[in-house]
Amino acid sequence: MLKNSEFIDKLRSSGLRPTKQRLKICEVLFNRDKTFHFTINDLAKNISEQLNEKISLATVYNTVHAFKNKGYLKEISINSDKSYFDTNITNHHHFFDEDSNELIDCDEDVIENLNIKKNITGKKINSVEVLIKVASDNQNQN
To answer: Which CATH class is domain 4-84?
Structure first.
């Protein structure tokens, strides 16, 4: 688990002043054993409940994007107007449950031998990450 001084270092290296609210954002994001997927709105609500006071959505947005730009978080775009952030910054795949709006890490052994047959001229592939959208199969519920 990280200590307050490590949170302060993360904030400062991201170009942010370590305020009480930003330290709470760090605690919620980085003081955990398992990876954490979240939207900015969900994170703001979670922190407001923990602090027992409202936190500015702009503060959460700016802090999350500063962390993303520094490489502490990864952004996963679900569609044109919905993004999740992930505390696990390694290359890995995800399931997105459209019923619960939950992003779930996908084990490596679920996807086998991706074969990319064509690349964009003048570019190299840095990573391949698959997003698998799932929903309830209502046809089998009789």
So the answer is: mainly alpha
Strands 93-97 and 131-134: parallel
Is the four-CA dihedral 45, 73, 78, 103 of positive or negative sign?
negative
Secondary structure (3-state) at 49: helix
- At residue 11, the 3 state secondary structure works out as helix
- The pLDDT tens digits for 108-128 are 778 887 888 888 889 988 888
Distance, CA of 39 to CA of 48 (rounded, Å): 14
Its pTM stands at: 0.86
Which segments of 14-85 does DSSP mark as H helices, in order? 20-30, 40-51, 57-70
Q: Where are the domains of the chain?
A: 4-84, 91-140
Per-residue pLDDT of 64-95, as tens digits, reads: 999 999 999 999 999 888 999 999 999 899 99
Contact 79, 116 (CB under 8 A): no
